[in-house]
Each structure stands twice: as C-alpha cells, then as structure tokens.
Design brief:
The protein is α/β, with parallel strands linked by helices and 307 residues long. It has one domain (44-301): TIM Barrel. The chain has helices at 11-20, 22-25, 67-80, 101-117, 129-138, 152-160, 184-204, 228-239, 259-262, 269-279, 290-298; strands at 32-34, 39-41, 46-52, 84-88, 122-126, 142-145, 164-168, 210-213, 252-254, 284-287. The strands form two sheets. An eight-stranded parallel β-sheet has the order 8-7-6-5-4-3-10-9. Helix 3 packs across helix 4 (101-117), helix 4 packs parallel to helix 5 (129-138) and helix 10 packs parallel to helix 11 (290-298). It starts with 10 loop residues before the first helix and ends in a 9-residue tail after the last helix.
Length: 307
C-alpha cells in the first residue's frame, strides 16, 4: 500500500519525534514566582497577551493607539486569563519604520506605569537596553528580549530589578536585522545553541526567572513570505518546541496567524496553534487573541480521573 505525503499534524510525523526526544518531554523546567504581582509559574501553560502600540503592527486587533486603549485592553486580557501582558512599540514587520529608544519610551512608559499600578505583570518587547532600563524603572516585571545581548551588565540590570527575561532567538542582532535563517535541518540546533549560551549568561548575572523562545520567525520572515513554506515552519517549530525543555527553563512560543491558511477566519488561527503548543508542553503562549486562546489552556484543569 502506498502512503501519501507526510502530514505535519499527524501521528506519522509526531510519534517518531516524540520517541527520539522522549527525554525532552519529561525534562524538568524551572518554576518561579513574581510576588509583587501575585503570579507563580510552574510547569504548565500560561498565556501572555499582546498589546501593539506601533501603528505598523500587522495584527490590527491587538493595536492600541492611546494610553487609555492600551490600559483597557491590558485589563481585559488579564480578566480573560493572561498572566503577563506584553507591550511593544516597534513592529518587526518587513519594511516597517524603526523606532528609537526615546520614541519607544514615550509610548511604552505611560502604559507600563498604569498597568503595573494595577498589579498586572507587564513584559516589554524590545531589544534596546535604554528602553529595557526605563521600562523596568516604570514597573515592568519581564523583558521580552527580541535581540541578542551578551553583556553580563545588561542582565545584572534585569536582576537588580528582580525581573524576568524571555530570551528570543534571532539569526541576526535583533528582530529587525533581516538575516537569513539557517537551513531547515540546521535551525533547531542553531536555536538551541544560542538559547543555551544566552541563558547561561543571564543566570550567571543573577537572573532567576528565564523563559526560552525559539523565535518563530522573528527577524527572518523576509525569507519566509506568507504561504506554504512559512506555515510549515510555524507548525513544525511549534510541534518541536518541547525539545527546548532540555535547557532547564520554561519555553515560550508566539502563536502564528497565517492568513494564507485561515483567510477570513485568521482570528481563529491562534486557537489552532495554541492547541499544537499544548501538545508540545509550551509553558508561555504569547497570543493576540486572549479570549479565544484561554479556553484551550483551561483544558489543563480537566482531570483524567473524573468519574
């Protein structure tokens, strides 16, 4: 009997990977707390909701054009179940405008201050050290680092504020570098090598709250325009995210929203990818669609021993 082409979302694809990397599935990851915000993170899935303050953002439903809109959206996402609210002021889209540190701070800091005053755990999405420092001073508790930084002093600054960091793989210096990624066969090894080294530097500098994020295309979507190749990359990277548990830190993944696959129903895409992320034991699911995604995470509360 002849078999058809191998599908990514099928036992034929998943079982061999799970068998080869069985130790990664059960590898322990660090748990930690943010006492000032009443948040604890153990080895299960939590949601991080996104607020985009850049007018260039491609995901229009996450866009907030005023402090009031952003604060209202942040509060709503917290009520929807998000444990962290991630705020960014510069799009990583191809051809979008760059925003310097002063420009990012002028937009980010008022929102961070108001949400932090409500005891909402805020993450700042940036790769600029000046923005990181100002955001931490304003009350952010997590740095979503979308760029490379090997300076121990940078991580000591994060540790001084008792904050956490999401270490994100980018093939270039940061998410705007547009450097071509490694080949498909080499990508996971490159992601693993970078994240292992970055986590070691951060931990040695005193950072005790770390997530590792394989990147999901940040900084190289110019090489993967929306279509079958990008969708394959997004699905495959999500389904193999569990392999990064071997680094000992919880894993973060951004939910994909491929228009080429979902068309007019693109707002349901992140629900689909959240399901794949749960299969891969992802610990922090970064989403623009908090209300649609949270029910997937709530399945963790369904016990197998129910009568």
């Amino acid at each position: 009997m002849e078999c058809g082409p191998l599908s990514l979302i099928s036992p034929d694809f998943l079982l061999p990977i799970w068998e080869e990397h069985r130790d990664a599935i059960t590898a322990p990851v660090r748990a930690f707390d943010f006492p000032a915000f009443g948040q604890s993170f153990t080895d299960q899935a939590y949601q991080m909701g996104v607020i985009n303050l850049s007018k260039d953002s491609s995901y229009r439903e996450s866009l907030s054009l005023s402090v009031q809109q952003a604060v209202r959206r942040g509060k709503r996402m917290a009520l929807d179940g998000c444990s962290i609210i991630d705020i960014g002021a510069e799009s990583t889209g191809v051809g979008t405008a760059r925003v310097n540190a002063d420009g990012q701070n002028s937009i980010l800091l008022p929102v961070i201050r108001e949400l932090a005053a409500e005891k909402i755990l805020v993450s700042v999405d940036t790769y600029l050290p000046d923005v990181v420092e100002a955001s931490l001073e304003a009350g952010a508790g997590v740095v979503n680092l979308t760029g490379r930084n090997d300076d121990p002093a940078f991580y000591r600054m994060i540790a001084k504020h008792d904050a956490g960091v999401i270490l994100c793989y980018t093939p270039g210096e940061h998410g705007r570098s547009e450097v071509d990624p490694p080949t498909r066969d080499e990508l996971i090894e490159a992601q693993m090598d970078y994240l292992r080294r970055a986590a070691e530097i951060a931990a040695a500098a005193g950072v005790e709250r770390i997530w590792v994020d394989p990147g999901m295309g940040i900084g190289y979507y110019h090489a993967l325009p929306d279509g079958p190749r990008r969708i394959r990359h997004q699905v495959e990277n999500t389904l193999q995210a569990f392999r990064f548990r071997t680094l000992g830190w919880p894993v973060c993944i951004t939910m994909a929203s491929p228009v080429a696959m979902f068309g007019e129903e693109v707002r349901s895409a992140e629900t689909c990818f959240a399901t794949l992320a749960m299969l891969s034991k992802v610990n922090l699911i970064r989403s623009h669609e908090a209300g649609r995604v949270q029910p997937v995470l709530d399945t963790q509360d369904i016990r197998l021993d129910l009568a």
